[in-house]
Amino acid sequence: MPTNPATVPRAVAHLRWPVEPAQGGWYTEAEHKAVRRVLAESDDWRTGWKPATTTGVFEDAFAASTGTAHAVTFNSGGTALEMVLRYLQLMPGDEVISCAINFVGPHLAVIGQGGSLVLAEPDPLTLNLDVVDTERALTARTRAILITHWNGAAADLRPFLTLAERHPHPVHGPPRVIVDAARCCGGRTPSGRMVGAEGWATVFSFESKKLMTTFGQGGMVTTDDQTLADRLRTLRTYGGRDQWGTNQMMTKAQAAVGLVQLARLDEMNAARIDRAHRRTQRLARVAELALPPTWHDRQHLYYRHNLFVPASWAGDGRDKLMNVLAEQYGVGSVVSDPVTYLGHRLIRHRTTGQRCPRAEHLAARLLCPCLHPRMTPGDEAAICDAIRRATEHVARAHGTTA
Ligand SMILES: *Cc1c(COP(=O)(O)O)cnc(C)c1O
């Protein structure tokens, strides 16, 4: 097995431009005001902190912004994913297909809800789930296809919806298309619809690093399925008197801030896209690096700015580049993300015998240097310069043959 890049130790404390774990948040006076308002109105024992009205307003605004009938808040994207999968009541042997390059969260949610995780390859350009490989992985036991809009590049969901219709489960009908949009909030898919509007259910995260954040934690599900929305609401509040449930509520203060962040989402995304496009332009002459393509049929939100080193640098050369960037230039970068089964032991155990060589190879060439909409032109120039120099440094040691 190749080395697991997630375990390569990298000191991040000294970095001038860090990536993980601490990044994110862009709050203005409007967010501060919203918090103060919630504080003032709740600081009365007769009112208290019950979130119902505020979260309801946030949910309605979110549903309207994505063009869906329902939006349901959760305390995190992880619990939201888990509850959507829980609704399916997966039985042993029921399969859920998902891309091998992924955040571990969606894969753990499948495992946690008793499903068999079936891994498929990514598209080499977008790292989104590959349609052809998904078709190969479909069986009569497939209950769901879990598609992550990878790093802000919205996937085209139409071919997956068609695939699902063509391969219905004998009991449950077409596999559900579940979308993980934790990294693509506010985006549009190639069909021109808002992320969140296509597929059976879409999960969003408002964790600190995400495109909008509700005090560093929070999640949302959008769906047009009234039955799913109703069940999700009872799952997060103790089962609504007749079924199992627990407490997974977002707080009132989070919802109040979420409402402001939602109104500012396009502005924040535009700033990020602008910085990403400038970075792509600035790095255009660095022959060793494959840059993210610029699409015209969809909006790429650049949750990350993906760079790929030459094949001959895969693994060691890429790690070296990340280390030089960090140690000599203070630029943090992250492999976003490694192949989940190499980085997480439980996922590896539950996918024994499955390999995705294309995903492994791409992940070994991938690095995502720090990008944030609040970076100044000076930050950006320094980071691009660092990437150029660090790449030259590694090229001298590794050669430049792709
Ligand atoms: C952040 C993230 C999640 C989980 O969201 P949390 O709110 O942190 O639980 C799920 N999937 C992807 C792709 C993510 O990036």
Using brief descriptors, characterize the structure shown.
Aspartate Aminotransferase, domain 1, binds pyridoxal-5'-phosphate, 40% helix, alpha/beta, 402 residues, 2 domains, PyrdxlP-dep_Trfase, single chain, 3-stranded antiparallel sheet, Aspartate Aminotransferase, domain 2
Overview of the molecule:
There is one protein chain. The chain is 40% helix and 11% strand. By secondary structure, it is α/β, with parallel strands linked by helices. The chain has two domains: 5-22 and 265-398, Alpha-Beta Complex (Aspartate Aminotransferase, domain 1); 29-261, Type I PLP-dependent aspartate aminotransferase-like (Major domain) (Aspartate Aminotransferase, domain 2), CATH 3.40.640.10. It is globular. The two termini are 22 Å apart. Residues 1-9 have low confidence and may be disordered. Bound molecules: pyridoxal-5'-phosphate. Pyridoxal-5'-phosphate is lined by residues 76-78, 103, 105-106, 148, 180, 182-183, 205, 207, 219. GO terms for molecular function: transaminase activity. Keywords: Aminotransferase, Pyridoxal phosphate, Transferase.
